[in-house]
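Quick start: read one record
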Amino acid sequence: MPCDLDSPPSAPLIPDLLDSQSILGGGLVQRRDGAARMAADASLGSLPVLSTQADWPSWLQQIEALARLSGIWDYVDPDGGQHLEEPARPVAPATPSFDSWTQRQMAETDEECQARFAEHKLQLDLIGRTFDIHHERYRIECHEYSIKLAEHAAARDEMGQLNRIIYAGVDKHWRAHLVGDMAATPRLKLKILASLMAGAGAPPQPPPASASPPPSSSHFAQLMDKLRCQGPRDWTLWACSVANLAEK
């Protein structure tokens, strides 16, 4: 067979379309228009602070509205499983290889040589047409890739902004649970908050400072009686009794 389309290219027959700044620059698209961004900024300014369990339903609805407005709710939904993944870069078609034309062979008639030459031309034409199809498909894939790459970058920025909004939109007592690798994404933060809200109605308060309980009235009265005692006494036994009462 004179052609192998899967063989490694011997020379860069076609340019790498993804290295063209005109394609990547001209193919960039904005995920949101100006009106949507202004609406998101307005919603951010009116977002209440999540303080108690009673605030959770309405607070989560506003977070969902912001995420849907940005087109990233599928990656934020705490009950969902879709993740933001970078699009795969298209692969350029391999440069075809083919056998070159050989001169007329010995003992080959004119008719045989012409037939072999016609067959060779048909094979070259088939190789060229097949490669043109692959190259056109690659060109389309490059345009689609540039669009998807821009959408991925925009969605990643939106998720980063929403991540900061969620952290800033909760009471300071809840924020300690929203740090670290276990709460690195908006979805993880919402899952943690949902778990916390299911088990508590208010932010945990620090325990009050421990204070020594006052001595009971009976012990205090006995201690005062010992101190008011007059007359002869065993001072060593008296001091031990006072010390024992003071320790109770």
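Strands lie at 3-4, 97-98.
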